[in-house]
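User: Can you predict the 3D structure of Tyrosine aminotransferase? Sequence below.
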Amino acid sequence: MVYAYNNKPGVPGFMMVCAYNNKLSVPGFIMIYAYNNKPGVPGFIIVCAYNNKPGVPGFIMDVVLTSGCSDALHQIISVLANPGQNCLIPKPGFSLYETVARSIGVDVKRYELLPNKDWEVNIEHMESQIDDNTTFIIVNDPSNPCGSVYSREHLLQILKVAEKHKLPIVSDEIYASFVFPGERYYNLAGLTSEVPILSCSSISKRYFCPGWRFGWIIIHDRNNVFEKEVRGALVRLSQRVVRTNSLIQSAIKSILEDTPQDFLASIIEAVAKNAHHMYREMCKIPGLQPVMPRAAMYMMIGIEIDKFPDFKDDIEFIKKMISDQSVLCLPGQCFKYPNFFRVVLTVPQSDITEACTRIADFCKKYYVA
Ligand SMILES: *Cc1c(COP(=O)(O)O)cnc(C)c1O
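Assistant: Sure. Here are the predicted structure tokens for Tyrosine aminotransferase:
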């Protein structure tokens, strides 16, 4: 079930298990006490783990607690691939995937996301990137930096590729609960009974507390593909350097249960409002092509770089925008996606309005039709 460092009586250890995986029919699964599987805390329930000691017959480790989602990714990549092998990551995508993979000698190959299709995966391209050394596919839905969230149908297409090539999926779900009003998030592991999935998340983004360093890996493995090697390796790795924060572990029940329902809803509403405002304003600026996000906290904006002859690429464009206007955005190259830039939408609305004006002034000055 769970490996919880602080799993003693009195300081209840917790584990988090995806609700759909939490059926007593799952072989060997010991479910003790579920108290938080209501909508509003989507995707998982927390189960008290007083009975989940190693040695208990049928023990299955379903959750590994980690020091944030970054640590979860580090552990997963370390376990799933050997040096010289590779994994597939999205382009544009969160830069940590490559940083972690390369740091342990694992190569990355990138599959394209399509800006004119709400950043859906180019499925043919994804498939073409798979070779004999490919060990897993990372999917980040909703996406940083794109702010996209995939439809059920599209996730099924991705799962089909993984199933066909017998590749597990690593699902970075840190923005799972962060979708704009009217949009819907589907949990990848809930859509397959074949593809083994290691999902990872943390409280960092959802509760705006990245410094608290608390995350987890959930093992979705209905067919026991991970049983022989991966589960054991994850346990051993989580024991090598114990990274979980016991203080937060003690508080996690309250964090997940007692946070007012409208806390997240009101933030999402504000971010969605910023997104709509920003999108409207960016559409008016000659030379820019924003892509409207549906989730997470970001928007990607394309730069028609040939219309800005003063700048060679997005990095020069952004550097100048910082020095001219004090507007700081990340150039697309940070996500291996040149001639775009990423805007963060979690700022007060007045700052978004001001930033729009400054970006417009900046573009007007350098645009050549
Ligand atoms: C911020 C972020 C992470 C890292 O989260 P921590 O819990 O702070 O380590 C991982 N993946 C994505 C997509 C992120 O945006």
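The pocket of pyridoxal-5'-phosphate is lined by residues 68-70, 94, 140, 144, 172, 174, 202, 204-205, 210, 215 (CB under 6 Å). Residues 75 and 95 are 16 Å apart (CA to CA).
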